[in-house]
Amino acid sequence: MRARVRRGAAGRTSGQVACGVERGSGFGQDGAVISLLFIEDDDAIRVALTLALEDEGYEVREAPDGRAGLAAFAEREPDLVLLDLRLPDLSGFEVCRSLRANSIVPIIIVTAQTDTYDLVAGLEAGADDYVTKPVVPKELAARIRAALRRVHLHESTASSTSVSRFGDIEVRREQGIVLKSGQELNLTKTEYRLVCEFADHANMVLSRDQLLERVWGYEYLGDSRLVDAHVRRLRVKVEDQPDDPKLIVTARGIGYRLLA
């Protein structure tokens, strides 16, 4: 089944703004309409949230299952993906891993509120963030804005000429990359921001709340599981032995510390 393409609010096409209407959240730094891909099999949820996001000015393409979502992504990469984990064909975890294998596009997963396993597994599959069902449109919009803001911050750090080194890890901000033993690591934008935050505060304990605010931009919407899952995923990439970390260590009951 093919993905369905919806236009922004008031039926405007990408790049157009209705006369007299202020630009909403759905516009990027250059004024272009931000495109979202929403992979969700529940028609009622998909249509309702799509309409709410269109009201924010986003262009939304819809896909009712995993294969349609992957096909839509391959046809044109969006600025952000919304991904339900419980899909009728491919699981959301499979879709997430497939997307992450080829792209660092921000991915927000949609999961059941009480399903901790799904949440952690989805984040470890490569998602950047999550929302729980029933989805509150305003919370979803806030998380989309935060994810896109992290993309902009990642790009803006490339103007910095600073280089940070700890162990065999090197952060080259001018290029926006992280190296391990001279080899570039495949990090998502969120993982890159997390590395930079640790590098900026080497040997200091950063609480989970501090990381949520500084990396994800959340003061009240966050969840410590979000931080823990990303640190575990980051350790797999930067540590020689992720189960016995020597660089990013846990400050029990508080948060994490980078040993430099």
Overall description:
The protein is of the alpha/beta class and 260 residues long. 38% of the residues lie in helices and 21% in strands. It is built from eight helices and 13 strands. It has helices spanning 43-55, 66-75, 92-102, 116-124, 137-156, 189-200, 208-216, 224-238, and strands spanning 4-6, 35-39, 59-63, 80-84, 107-112, 129-133, 163-166, 169-172, 177-180, 183-184, 205-207, 248-251, 255-258. The longest helix has 20 residues, at 137-156. It is globular.
Which labels suit this protein?
260 residues; alpha/beta; 6-stranded mixed β-sheet; 4-stranded antiparallel β-sheet; 8 helices; 38% helix
Please indicate the percent range of residues in DSSP E strands (runs of 2 or more). 15-25%
As residue ranges, the low-confidence spans are 7-23
Q: Looking at the structure, what is the overall shape?
A: globular
> How many angstroms does the end-to-end distance come to?
51 Å
Total helices: the number is 8
Number of strands: 13
Compact overview of the structure:
The protein is of the alpha/beta class and 260 residues long. It is built from eight helices and 13 strands.
Secondary structure: elements and pairs:
Layout: E1 4-6, E2 35-39, H1 43-55, E3 59-63, H2 66-75, E4 80-84, H3 92-102, E5 107-112, H4 116-124, E6 129-133, H5 137-156, E7 163-166, E8 169-172, E9 177-180, E10 183-184, H6 189-200, E11 205-207, H7 208-216, H8 224-238, E12 248-251, E13 255-258
